[in-house]
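In this supplementary section we document a worked example of the pipeline. Step one takes a protein sequence of length 217 as its only input; no multiple sequence alignment statistics are reported here. Step two produces a three-dimensional model, which step three serialises into structure tokens for compact storage. The input and output of this example are shown verbatim.
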Amino acid sequence: MNILIVDDHPLFRHALIQAVRYSFPQAQIHETAAVNEFYERLESGSEPDLVLLDLNLPGASGFSALVHVRAQYPAIPIIVVSAHEEASIIQRSIAHGASGYIPKSAHPSHIGEAIRHVLDGEIWLPPNMSGNLSFDPRKADETALAERIQSLTPQQFRVLMMVAEGLLNKQIAYELEVCEATIKAHVTAIFRKLGVQNRTQAVLAINALDIEEKRIK
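The serialised model returned by step three reads:
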């Protein structure tokens, strides 16, 4: 079994690796710390059997990485592993395509349990939280936005995340090692797919998938 852990905290990645190995000693475990590394590994053609994904990652905004990867690689089951324990965050994660949700405060034994359930095609939720989720339909605006983001190509998604970080076209071109005209073409296509007219509107759109602003107080 090939498992990919995506988390930007080295100490937690190490702890998660140990927890996975305890339940699956023969598993091949790989790790990445950022969204770009995550995409590069997936695009290399070696798809993992399972992904353990943190929601707070460099190069992503809230649920954006989950939404995009779920669209590009629908066959790969994803378990969100996050410090957020609010019922609303868990609900939105499952609604956006996660097959399970493990709070970082969970007991290590839950890691193996969650992986087994998800690989069997089931949804796994924290035992003490599943009864508190109502799974009401998502708000129409967030659902529509998720669908528009799913229509972006991997490169367009990278460009959108860089736009959200405030980078100019020439800076994005330098980072991605392409010409500025290519970035301009990507930005134009992104605006069309998102239904926005400028960079400010694009940033506001992607921020709708953020986590912090919708947390339960």
